[in-house]
Specification:
With 46 residues, this protein is mostly beta strands. The protein has one domain. The chain has 1 helix and 3 strands. Strands 2-1-3 form a 3-stranded antiparallel beta sheet.
């Protein structure tokens, strides 16, 4: 499973760049989200 960071405005919930969110500590949140890996393709069963 891969993780990714995103920035979010605390008041409106809109996404913003992570660097901008890190600078604005009071008005922003930096979230770490888990991105699930893609499942293996299904084999054709007959």
């Amino acid at each position: 499973m891969v993780t990714r960071k995103i920035g979010r405005d605390a008041e409106t919930g809109q996404f913003k760049p992570v660097r901008q969110a890190e600078k604005d500590k009071k008005g922003s949140i930096v979230e770490t989200i888990k991105i699930p890996s893609k499942p293996a393709p299904a084999k054709n069963r007959k």
